Amino acid sequence: MQILFLIGRLMYAALFIESGIGHVTKTKQMGAYAKSNGVPAAEFMTFLTGIMLLVGAISVIFDFMIFFGALLILLFLVPTAFMMHAFWKVQDPGMKQMQHIQFMKNISLAGAALMIMFFSYGLH
């Protein structure tokens, strides 16, 4: 059953590795988008969250301090869902639907982070 946990961790972390690399390498572009959504110190926050995602994902992949790695991911996902994907503020139906999907994706992934934290708490 350990192989299932490893495969699940790899699948879960893949998104955050890719996203973290984007945050770190495209800070200016992603920061501009974050700023347009009201994120304070947007470029700095973009870079910081990129580091959080990379550290969190690597922690989850290698099952090293996994509770804290999943916590870093959780601390990214929840604020991002509400700040960057506030579908309730969008008027255009197509954009509203896209933002709703992104919001729900982040909330679902946050739930998975909570489960990782729960199952890892007594194991490490």
List key phrases describing it.
single chain; globular; mainly alpha; 124 residues
Mean of residue pLDDT values: 95
- Inertia-based shape: globular
Write the element-wise H/E pattern from the N-terminal end onward.
Answer: HHHHH
The parts where pLDDT drops under 50 for at least 5 residues are: none
Explain what you see.
The protein has 124 residues and is an all-alpha fold. It has one domain (2-121). Helices cover 83% and strands 0% of the residues. The chain contains 5 helices and no strands. It has helices at residues 2-25, 27-36, 42-62, 66-84, 93-121. Helix 4 packs antiparallel against helix 5. The protein is globular, with a radius of gyration of 15 Å.
Question: Mind sketching the topology for me?
Answer:
Blueprint: H1 2-25, H2 27-36, H3 42-62, H4 66-84, H5 93-121
Helix pairs in contact: 1-3, 2-3, 3-4, 4-5
How would you summarize this macromolecular structure in one to three sentences?
By secondary structure, the chain is mostly helical.
